[in-house]
Amino acid sequence: MSSWFWLAISALAWAGAVWSAPPQRVELAYDISRNGLRIAEVVYLLEHDGSRYQITETSKGRGVLALRGTIRRTSRGLVSPQGLKPLEFVDERTGRNTARALIDWNAKTVTQQYQGEPSVEPLPAQAHDRLAFAFDFAFAPPRRGEVAFDVLNGRGQSRHVYTPGGRGRIKTPLGEFEAVLYVRGPPDDRTELWLAVERGLLPVRIVVTEKDGTRFEQVVTKITPP
Predict the structure, then answer these.
(1) Looking at residues 9-24, what average pLDDT do you find?
(2) Domain 5-224 belongs to what topology?
(3) CB 113 within 8 A of CB 133
(4) Can you tell me the distance from the alpha carbon of 13 to that of 29, in angstroms, rounded to the nearest whole number?
């Protein structure tokens, strides 16, 4: 891939620490647990050249959950000064119909299809997709306030609003990271995004607590290149 413009701002200070954008090609592996029990593993491959990007997610359950097959999601689009601008999102799962969202930024429309005919709708103000929004922090200018996403997944859309939750050092199988926290929702229905400052604000820990108390945790186990 060609040279990328993010090198020009790699020395930008973010909340008191040096911020730099992710490499042109980086692979991240995570373990996913439910109430402390490992249930799946997921791998993300992020590739970009400063103007276009592609993120591929492949996940597979462990134990009896492995019988459900694999999930493969792909997001591709543009890298803009404001962050990622998805053009196409595809969600493929074993035994299910493929979900797809096509975004037309010029016409300000999104075409979504899961079952039946495609549906064309007005593009929401903060349009993003189910896969790429968590990586948007690594490409957007540093944020200190509330961040909103209108997340599209091929079957519909939902609004996600994250607020800053502080910063600290978190432990992972790769060691400790200095990370900033963004939080969505109240304590009994909450999502936490922990973004590693020294790794260009890539997500290294995601925690989802549901209303019934079920807790899902996604923790990074490998980053290539290290």
Answers:
(1) 50
(2) outer membrane lipoprotein receptor (LolB), chain A (2.50.20)
(3) no
(4) 27
